[in-house]
Every structure is written in C-alpha cells, then in structure tokens.
Amino acid sequence: MMGQMMQMPLMISSLLVHAARHHGDAEIVSKRVEGDIHRYTYRDAELRARKVAQALGRLGCEPGDRVGTLAWNGYRHFEIYYGTSGSGLVCHTINPRLFPEQIAWIINDAEDRVLCFDLTFLPLVEKLAPHLRSVQHFVLMTDRAHMPASSSLDLECYDELVEAESGEYRWPEFDENSASSICYTSGTTGNPKGAVYSHRSTILHAYASALPDAMDCSAKDVILPVVPMFHVNAWGLPYSGALVGAKLVFPGPHLDGKSLYELFESEKVTFSAGVPTVWLGLITYMKQNGLKFSTFRRTVIGGSACPPAMMRTLEDEFNVEVIHAWGMTELSPLGTLSKLKAKHRDLPVEQQRHILEKQGKVIYGIDMKIVDDAGRELPWDGKASGNLVVRGPWVIERYFKRDESPLLDGWFPTGDVATIDADAYMQITDRSKDVIKSGGEWISSIDLENIAMSHPAVHEAAAIACKHPKWDERPLLVVVRKPGQSLTREEMLAYYEGKIAKWQIPDDVVFVDEIPHTATGKIQKLKLREEFAHHVLPTA
Ligand code: ADP
C-alpha cells in the first residue's frame, strides 16, 4: 500500500517563496563592495531572484548550465543562488582566494557559461579571461553608476540585466535530484574536485542544520554568515536562513575586526558562523578597545579544529556560546556539531566543556563510523582512533566528471582520523596526512596546537611533522607570538609539561611573523612542511 500524500519535489526555490510569503518583511542587509549598506526584504529578494532567472534565460542559459560566481556575501550573490538553482541552472561558487591558475582550471572544468563577479574581482577576471574556454557572458555585479569606463572585457551590468525583466516568472518544478550547485574542494592534493549538490540534498541539509542540536536557527535570529558564500555555500545559511525566515546580514568584503564588530552591533546580530581564524581578528580588535557584544550570543565554529582557548575567550569574556562543528565540502558541509545531552546538564562545567570541545554528534541524516586500515569498525570508547567514514543523503556519491567512486563499501572516506566516545561524540585527532608519526605512535597535531593556543602569549600555532633519523617524524611547533609578547622556545616547551605525555611534547619551536593559510582560512600544513623540510631538530 502506498502513502497518499502530495507529491511535491523538494525545490530550492520553495525556500525563498516560503520566506517571501511567510516572513515577507524580514530583512536582508548587505554591506556592499561599494561601501554603503543595502537593505531589502525576502519579498524583494524573491522578486529579484525571479528576474535573475529571466535574465539568465535571456542570456541563453538552459537547464543544467553552470553559472559561476566570484563574489562576497551580499544580496546580489543571494539572488543568484536562488535565480540559478530555482530555474534549473547550477550555481557554481568560486573561491577567489585560490591561485588564478586554479580558478581558471575550475571554471573550465565546470564549463561555466556565465560568470558573475563583484567589482573587487574585475582585475582578476580580466586577467583570467583569455584562459576561459566556456564563458560567454561576463556580468559585473553592480549598478550602472559603478560600471568601469573601460575594460578589456565586454561587460554586462548585473543591475541593468535584472531591472530590465518583468519578474513575471513561475518557478519551475522538476526532479528534486537535479543538480543545484557545485563547489570545488580546495585541492590541497592535486586538482580541485567538484561536489555537485542537488535540490533534495540542499533542502534536507537546510532542514537538518536548522535543528536545535545543530545550528538552532529560527525566525527570532539575525544571522551574519562570516563564512563566505564561496566556502561550501556559507555552510548552508542562505538556505536555512530562508527556511526559518531569519534576518540575514551579509558583510561583503569587510571582514576585519572593526567592520565586523560594527555590523554585529548595528544590525543586532544574534548568530554567526566561521572558521577559527576569522575570530582571531575580531577578538583582538574587541580586546584592544574594551568592547562587548549586546545581542550576539552564539556562533558555529568549524572548518578546522576550534582551539579550546578560543572557546573559553568567546564564552567567558564575550558571553558567546561556541558550537564546535565538523564538516566537509563533500558533506554540504555539515556532519557533526557539539551540543550537550539532557544527562550532561548537571555535570561540573569543566566536564561539560570537555564534551563541547569535541566535534560532536551527527545530525540525523548522517551516519558515521571509524575503521582501521583494513576497513574493520573500531569501538566507540573515546580512545580507539581510526579513519572516519560517513554516509547520508547530503554526502557525495562521486565527484563531478570523475567515474571512479570514492566510496568504500558505500561509505565516504573523509581523510580524517577520529575517536568516537560511548555517547556518540566524535573527536577529530587529525587529518590523516597531518598526523605526526613518531616511532610508530601517532601524535595529534591538533592536541599540540590546542595547548599552544591556550598560552596567553600565543596568537596562532601549528604543529607539523619534521623528519627525524631515529623516530621517523617528530613534532615541530611553529608559533606566531601576540604583538609585544616575549615568549621563548624554552618557556613554550615547559608549558607542555604535565599537559600531555612527555614523548608527545614537540622537539622544537620556531617563531614566525605569519602562518600561511589556505583559501578557506585554514592553516596550510603542506606549505609549512615544505618550508621546514630541512629544519634540523636539536634532538636529531
Ligand atoms: P577545504 O577547506 O580544504 O576546501 P573542506 O572545507 O571540505 O575543504 O575541509 C574539510 C576538512 O576540514 C575536514 O575533512 C577536516 O579535516 C577539516 N575540518 C573541518 N571541520 C573541522 C573541525 N571542527 N575540527 C577539525 N578539523 C575540521
């Protein structure tokens, strides 16, 4: 016997239609590249998204065509998200912080037909254009007044294209498994690989990530995604925000501590999300100026391990709850988040914090396990660490244009090494290529970094493997001191005593002015390893 319920495909357009009908006057506020503030409502955004769909159709786009974006978080980018996917096109967000050759490679691989970009990226696009094989239209995301007097490109003005349309357009319904958007991994090993999301996977991810034990989004929230819309769809917030009808605040390119702080305050932001490094700048600015938040109460931090010291600072000094999350481009991206269970309520604060420092529990929809190199499942005892594998309706089955499946027995190998405890809380100990293998034992680089980051004189720290004649690899700690602090190698090493086993303490410390970051703001371990490839440890 079949169920007798309505057949309604899960369409991305329905999120925005819902927001426009039921939260029509909720605002979307953007700090524009041009410098000013733009505000309008979900109702306005839905109308403009329909016009975007019409305009892209007029440019010759057909269902399945890819539309590339090189853009900050802003209302035009938001309209393109919905105007493309909603009309059956595929939104391809591109990370502008990648190397230009990588960006050109990605655009050619995705075969983007139209490229929409913010004013910031005009010089970049002019440079890339001769290498782009598929792009037929270059659309500058601005108004007529800001169009450049001359350019080597035949530019089209986004606002003019949109405003020329009537908006008399009905969002089509089609197979919910159709491609909706595509994101490339940053390609730390080899060429980047495309993850192709569907309408179905995006909506399920949006539902799941809005749940109380996940991001806990609601119409009461004012959400400011610091995480860029070019980094795994801003972790789905443009979708889950519309799903719950939350006010959205987009910071544009203005991501320094001062600009962010002012926007958090003026727009009464309650919730945000970003990688650990973005909070460093904000915290430093606020401390220097003795500032506090008036409405901002919780944030998701993920993308790389959030140092417990950062959680403490945000919670104790700024009254902001940190929700530690783990995910990947291949997971749309959310997999796990750390929240307490009812049975943890009466635990001493220190024990609660210990739980919350982990990467957390899966959201329903995702399943996970840890396996050894032979694929055998390992126990959930919080001690055994193994390769983390996952599955679920918002996990990729294969990469764009690649025939071979990355799956092992139906599970996606994440490349992360993790433990899972008896309460199903997962903790990442390392990326498999970042673990330090000392005399056959594994040392977690994340553990070493977390300890270093809790030292008051440390701004940022990275632990990497360094060649050692006897132990194969030993840990080397690379440290950026806080301005004006005089931390020595000996003081840093002494700080580890009693905090971890003696054999895990780094063999050496080097101080640098800056640690390199990837295009998504993570520590670039590969580059550091190359830089210190010939470093001679004092123990060697
Ligand atoms: P990239 O930023 O390299 O483009 P992803 O965002 O997909 O790609 O990176 C996913 C990886 O980031 C994970 O496999 C994991 O190694 C790391 N990661 C994400 N969140 C966390 C976290 N909370 N703790 C530790 N590592 C994390």
TrEMBL record:
Single GO MF annotation: ligase activity
| Pfam families attached to this UniProt entry | AMP-binding, AMP-binding_C
Locate the AMP-binding enzyme C-terminal domain: which residues?
448-522
Domain AMP-dependent synthetase/ligase per the UniProt entry, residue ranges: 18-400
- Sorted UniProt keywords: Fatty acid metabolism, Ligase, Lipid metabolism
- Highest taxon in the source lineage: Bacteria
Q: Which PROSITE patterns match?
A: AMP_BINDING
By its UniProt entry, which InterPro entries does this protein fall under?
Answer: AMP-bd_C, AMP-bd_C_sf, AMP-binding_CS, AMP-dep_synth/lig_dom, ANL_N_sf
Family of this protein: Belongs to the ATP-dependent AMP-binding enzyme family.
Please identify the protein, giving its name as recorded. Answer: 3-(Methylthio)propionyl-CoA ligase
